[in-house]
Amino acid sequence: MKNARKEIQRARMWRYFLDAATEVIEEEGLEQVTIRKIAKRAGYTSSTAYNYFKDLSHLKFFAAMRFTTDYISELPLYLKKGTNTIDSWLYSWECFCKHSFNRPEIYAIIFMDDLGGSVDELLEDYYEIYQEDLIGLPEEIKPIVLELNFSKRSMLYLQKAVDEGFILQKDVDLLADMTLMLWKGMMNTVLNQRRNYTQEQAASQTISYVYEMVRRVVVPDKQNEINYVPN
């Protein structure tokens, strides 16, 4: 009973602080998030905030996750568009690019920044508090959503493409790693304003690169079964 009360209290405090962090991000931007500012808005001291979050990077990570609910809710719809695993995987990339380049600073924190610890543990902590974010997700999609290592996430999904004969086992790691590097390269380009891409251009260019990479590894006899066409 005592542990149950403690967990309820922890969940309640998390929501106070993350609601405050979300408000600051929406009003002032991610770069304005500080422990002191979030604690004050939540009605507590900074020392209280540190009782629940190891450091600012962790608080930013958890707050950033609150902005991924649209992506998570749309992902199953995109996956359903595909008639085979490769098509579905390309549609999932389309969904991810659409949302990640719409909020690049959010997705960079989640998938690129050094968080100084186990990302798996952070994600587990997050979904313990926000279990409702997973409600309604098909069971086969939950392992993808719950895996923050994007390369590993792709490997999990692409394994089915091996079973369907679209790609060889030896190319799974290559395809997963190379497509992740393509996205990270474009994300760095956008964040550092190296090119004048709009959000739509960055997303479209990235998915085109991913598509070309896929075409290079799909076995010749299966090429004509890929129905996905980049916009």
Descriptive report:
With 231 residues, this protein is mainly α. It has helices at residues 2-28, 35-42, 46-50, 56-65, 69-79, 85-100, 104-111, 119-129, 142-145, 150-163, 172-191, 199-217. It is globular. The protein starts with a helix and ends in a 14-residue tail after the last helix. The mean pLDDT is 87.
Could you give the count of β-strands? 0
Low-confidence segments, given as residue ranges, are none
Q: Would you list the SSEs in sequence order as H and E?
A: HHHHHHHHHHHH
CATH level-3 fold name of the largest domain: Tetracycline Repressor, domain 2
> What gap, in angstroms, lies between the N and C termini?
55 Å
* Count of discrete structural domains: 2
Q: Strand content of the residues, in percent?
A: under 5%
CATH architecture of the largest domain: Orthogonal Bundle
CATH class of the largest domain: Mainly Alpha
Shape: globular
Largest sheet: none
Fraction of residues in H or I helices: 55-70%
Q: Helix count?
A: 12
Arithmetic mean pLDDT: 87
How are the secondary structure elements laid out?
Layout: H1 2-28, H2 35-42, H3 46-50, H4 56-65, H5 69-79, H6 85-100, H7 104-111, H8 119-129, H9 142-145, H10 150-163, H11 172-191, H12 199-217
Helix pairs in contact: 1-2, 1-4, 4-7, 5-6, 6-12, 10-11, 11-12
